[in-house]
Every structure is written in structure tokens, then in C-alpha cells.
Amino acid sequence: MRIVRINMNTLTSRDEDLPDDRNVVGGRALTAKILNAEVSPKADPLGKEAKLVIATGPLAGTIAPSLGRLSVGAKSPLTQGIKEANAGGPAGQKLDKLGIRAIVVEGAPADDKLYVATISKDGVSFEAADAYRGLGNYELVAALREKCNDTVSIISIGPIGERKQKSATVAFTDKDGHPSRHAARGGMGAVMGAKGLKAIIVDDAGTPDVEIGDKKSFRGAVKAWAETLKEERMFKVCQAYGTPGFIGALSGLGSMPSKNYTGEPTEGIENIYGEALKEKNTERGGKMDGCMPGCLIRCSIVFNDADGKHVTSAIEYETFGLMGTNLGVADLDAIAGFERRCDNMGIDTIELGSALGVASSAGKFEMGDAGAVANLLSEVEQGTDFGATLANGVVSTAKALGVTRIPAFKGQGIPAHDPRVGKPTGVTYATSPMGADHTAGTKYEMEDEGAVEHSLKEQIVMATVDAMGLCYFATTLDRKILMEFLKELLNARYGLNLTADDVVDVGRDTLRGEMKFNAEAGFVDANDPDPEFIRVEPVPPMDMVFGVPAEEMAKIWDNLDTVSIF
User: Fold this and answer.
1) For the CA atoms of 435, 440, 446, 450, what is the dihedral angle to 10 degrees?
2) 196's torsion region: left (phi>0), alpha (psi -120 to 50) or beta?
3) CA 210 from centre of chain
4) What is the pLDDT of residue 111?
5) Cα–Cα dist 2/210, whole Å
6) Domain count for the chain
7) Out of 95, 151, 161, 175, which could bridge 193 as a Cys pair, Cβ 3.0 to 4.6 Å?
8) Spans of the chain, pLDDT less than 50
9) Residue 492 belongs to some domain of the structure
10) What pLDDT score does 79 carry?
11) Are residues 391 and 432 in the same domain?
């Protein structure tokens, strides 16, 4: 396996072998190692000295299901700390077939131009992308596909990334070619834009299947895993309804954000429950599908409009929460339309929805007015002054409007899991190197006592899962079975003798490296204090507040090396 380095200043590339001791290091673990070794924690996230790292997991190109997610890592312009965001789609599988574990993007064009890089078995080539400047992801992908074979994957940014705005995403095409999978959190698209890189085309044509040392053991582990997943409740719900299948339960608990995180009910919310969504979408010819080949869960909602025309292939619970109920909107087609526009612009629906909620609290529009939300999206698309403020995130928006109730941890908007309900989730938001990020460790326990330990365990699990490139929805709550499965796959592919604890140690080491980077970056000092309102404003219907003592959270990492996740 190798690392491909792309220098955007000289428009050249070079390969280097992946060290043998990093055979099982990929995804979030590898982005953390490279950034720690090569980027100053004090670097300007959008400066030439910064780097963007795109890394696959160590099992991406195999037949193992749901292990092809790609991590995108950089110093975040939003949090000013180390950041990783990940997404699905076939690009990770293709990179593994090309023998590539990571792409490291360095430097920036001296002429401030944009380029497209193509990676294939023949190496890396570049073309000027001036003709694509300003294009949204859908238009860009359509234009690039006219020049390519139908099997390529495309990694791209929209106008928000070109403008280097802090909520910019990195988009990945799904298996049908829609740029609907996003590494969305932390402004990774802004870093890609600062590198002058509009898109990367990944073409694995003519490459052989990846090598597996012990095929029999590998296939046996995959078969047993498929049977295990069939019994998991999360797997069943996601397979049937996608992540919106959790809307009914989580909104009932008060965890799904409503009307700027106040918990005030959103009228008509039952219209966006997973069951209602599925019924309407099925009538329109929509379907459930996988974002990458070989997926067992197939939780990606291919959503059509009333005329049967494709709108989006990745409308998720988080978008229904932040671009829907958090704005008092429960119109299915309106929210799907918002999603399509955000995918095209390349902007994080969590961060933008959080910023819009604050804007409503400041009198910019009335909660529940979908037309007003659509108008503000037009401002973001056009790059007006206020549109740029929104695109730079919730903290930027709150400060511009003189709002002091800021729903963010460490510079990043709160996702659609309220920390007042899932107490370990709140601890994760407050302590994770990622800031307020549901993918860093979400757990629903409603007692303050024990929340710190629950969060620590879940953060270790998620760091491990992200290092492997595994989709979280295709896991089991039995962490021993999960880590044994990953161990068996790694041993079978690479001829190793790892234990389950060895696999977990990859996650521990990842967190350790991320915290080291953030300590040197001044991550805590760079951001406002955690939001006070979660401690003093009860969220209905259970009127819960977040009460985990700050002094307990400060000690969370004392047990990083010793706590058992099993």
C-alpha cells in the first residue's frame, strides 16, 4: 500500500510506501498520524502550510460490507483544532484497489487557479478547472462524467468550498454517480478549496481485486457477521426507513432539536417520520439503496419528488433535525429541497441549520416559514454578506447578530442529538477533539452519573470504527463481537495475529494523537465556553438539563488507556 502526495503548487505527485507498521492504520487514525507529523498545530487552516488528508480504511476494497468509508482530515477552520469527517460511496473501495491508503494534498497554486486531479493506475494527472469555477456539485459531476467512464468516483467541492467558507463540505459520489455523500463537519471543503482543488477523479479501471491472505477465513468472518447484523435493532430500523426511522422516538424524548433547540413542538412532525417518508417515497418510485457496492444495510434513501424525479440520495435524520424541526419546518418536500441545494453548494446541513435557527431567534424569519428558509439559502448560494455569515457557521452568525445563546461546542454547531437528553453525548461534545460532533460518540443514557465513562467508551469505539472505515449503522452494540470481527478480517487479509484489544488500541492511539495536536493548537482557548443554556434551560417533554460537572469531564482522559469497552 502507498500514500500519494499531491503538490498543488507544482502540480506534481509522488508516491511513498505505507510503513509496514501502519498496515492496519487507516481512516481517522491515519489522518491524525499524518497531520501530527507534518502540520504545525499553529498553522492557518486555509494557508499553504496546511494539508488535507483523504484516507481509506485498511479493508476498503475487500468484500467485507460497509467498510469503504473515507476519512477527510485537516486542521479545521471552524474549530481551529484537528478534524476528521467521513463519508460513504465507492471512492474508498476504488482507492484500495489502486493500492492507495491515503492522498495527502499539499501547497496551493500560486496563481489562485482551480484544478481537477485524476488518479488512476497510470498515476496522477491535472487539468485546469477554470471552466468549472462556481459550479455546484451536481453540475460539476455531470460535466466531468462526460469526459470519463461511468465507473469513476468523484470527490469535489461546491461554491462554498471555493469561497473557503467554514461550513464547506467535501462531496463524494455514490454508486449511482450522485454527489450526495458528504464529509460535512468542520469545514473540510474550505481546506480543499484553499488548495485550489475543485475535484479528484478516482478511476480504478484495469486494476485487480485486492489481495487477501486467507480467503477462507475472511469469507467465514463476513458470513457470520452478516447473520449477526440481521438481529440488530439499529440495523433493522435503518434498513427499513434509513436514519429518519429514529425521528419518532428521538423527537418524543426531546432529543431531536426543535425551534432553535428550545424543544417547542414542531407542528406536523409526524409527516416526516420514517414510516410516512417511506410510504410517500415508494409511491413516487423512490427506494432504499446502498451508497457503495456490497452494502448490507442499504439505508440510503433515494428520494423522488411528486413527479418521480430524483431529488437526493442521502436525506438523513440530521438534516431533518437541523434543516427541518430546528427551523419549525415539517414539510417533507421542502426539507428534501433544502438538502438538494446544500448538497449542490457543498455545505454542512447541521452547521447551516444551526446558524439559521439562531437567525430566526434574532428576527430574520419566523419559525416554520419554509419559504423564508429557501430565500436565505439563495443568499448563501449567491454569496451575499449575510449569506457568507451563515456559511461561516453558527458562531459567526450569532456574533454577527449580537446573539449570546450560541448552540455550539468548540466552535461547531450542536447536531440533532440534544446533550440534555443523552448525557454521555453532551460529554462527548464537550471533550472530544472533534467538538460538537455526533459521529465522535453518541450514547443515550439519561443520568448525569456515569456519563463521563459512557462517553469515554463510546469515543474509543467511534475512533476505532472510523479508523477502519466502517459504517456505524452496520455495527453491533456488542463491542466484543464487533472488535473480534474486525480482528478476524485484518488478520485474514494481512496475515497478522492481532487481538481484539489490539484493534481497540488503534482507536485509543487516535484519540491520544488528536488531543496532542489540539493541546498544541490552543484548541480550548480558541473557542467560546460551552453553551450555558443546556445547563439552565430544561428541554421538554421530560424537562431535562445537562448536569454533568465540568470537573468530572476534565478527568475523562485519565482512564483512556485502562477503561474496557467490552
Assistant:
1) -90
2) left
3) 26
4) 87
5) 14
6) 3
7) 161
8) none
9) no
10) 98
11) no
- Residues 250 and 274 occupy one common structural domain: yes
- Asked whether the CA dihedral 385, 390, 396, 398 is positive or negative, the reply is positive
Query: Would you state the pLDDT for residue 405?
Result: 98
| CATH code of 262's domain | 1.10.569.10
CATH number at residue 134: 3.60.9.10
Cα torsion 258, 259, 265, 271: sign: negative
The strand pairing partners of 13, in sequence order, are 6
Report residue 207 as a C-alpha cell: 486494476
User: What distance lies between CA 509 and its chain's CA centroid?
Assistant: 20
**49 and 110 fall within a common domain:** yes
Q: Residue 208: inside a domain, yes or no?
A: no
Q: Quick one: pLDDT at residue 295?
A: 92
Q: Would you state the cell numbers that stand for residue 22, as one nine-digit string?
A: 501502519
* Report field, pTM of the whole predicted structure over 0.90: yes
Given this model, what pLDDT does residue 149 score? 83
| Separation of alpha carbons 352 and 394, rounded Å | 7
Name the pairing type of β-strands 287-289 and 300-304. antiparallel
- Together in a domain, 312 and 443: no
Query: Do 299 and 373 reside in the same domain of the chain?
Result: yes
Q: Whole-angstrom Cα distance, residue 500 to residue 502? A: 5
Which residues are paired to 153 by β-bridges?
A: 202
Q: The cell 485509543 sits on which residue?
A: 508
Phi-psi region of 177 (alpha: psi -120 to 50; beta: other; left: phi over 0): left
CB 26 within 8 A of CB 58: yes
What pLDDT does residue 314 have? Answer: 86
Q: What is the pLDDT of residue 487?
A: 98
What per-residue string of b and e applies to 453-479 under the rule 16 or more CB within 10 Å gives b? bbbbbbbbbbbbbbbbbbbbbbbbeeb
Verify that 255 and 112 share a domain, yes or no.
no
**Measured distance CA(327)–CA(371) in Å, rounded:** 12
Task: Tell me which residue range forms the domain holding 344.
Answer: 241-410
What does the alpha-carbon distance between residue 445 and residue 544 come to, in Å, rounded to a whole number?
12
Quick one: pLDDT at residue 427? 98
Same domain? 133 vs 264: no
The answer to whether the bond into 541 is cis (omega within 30° of 0) is yes
Q: Which residue from 126, 162, 183, 129 is spatially nearest to 7, judged by alpha carbons? A: 126
Cβ–Cβ under 8 Å, residues 167 and 351: yes
* Residue 273 within any structural domain of the chain: yes
Angle, vertex CA 16, rays to CA 15 and CA 22, nearest 5: 135
Predicted confidence at residue 21, as pLDDT, reads 79
Beta strand 115-120 pairing with 197-202: parallel
Regarding whether 169 and 251 lie in a shared domain, the answer is no
